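Here's what a typical entry looks like (Riboflavin synthase):
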Amino acid sequence: MFTGIVQAAVPVVGIVRKPQLITLTLSLPEPLRGGLAIGASIAVNGTCLTVTGFENDRVGFDVMMESLRLTNLGRLDVGSLVNVERAAHYGAEVGGHVLSGHVHGIAEIVAIERPDADNCVVRFRVPAPLVKYIMDKGYVALNGCSLTICDVQDGEFSVYLIPETLRVTVFGHSQVGDQVNLEVDSQTQAIVDTVERVLAARGY
């Protein structure tokens, strides 16, 4: 489980590409390496990945074909920055919202506005099958960052980013056209899907 509070944006320092598999190596700062073990879960751009090896600050992960299909991890290059969050432990403060790290699809940045030095508005286009889960003032995770949805219209929505979010996450470097991992809120998904099933069973 994750909370959507990104702890750092870190560089990709190694990529090994094979058919339907890549191995990513990240450079993690010391505060994020405490208690690290093989098999630990870390969210990388919001995707739950398993640690497969580590030495000093280098931490490795295998990314399989389904994750490559649904996420932006296959588009990374050496030098790319990614958001990371260690798995939450029981009793931890949930400052964002509960996330599984199971990405549903990719959203595209279609506009970035900076009305002043302290505000940034980023607009995203959502894959059509996920639009029904996007509701004004609801939650989403974008590259693992828990954010509040605003201004939903025509398959697009906006989020407002504070300076701290821009400083700590990859959004401080984002550009129009970037592909961003999207995890919809699990409670919203469950409610929408349940209502659809009930209405379909009643012939609506």
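The chain is about 15% helix and 45% strand.

More examples are in the samples folder.
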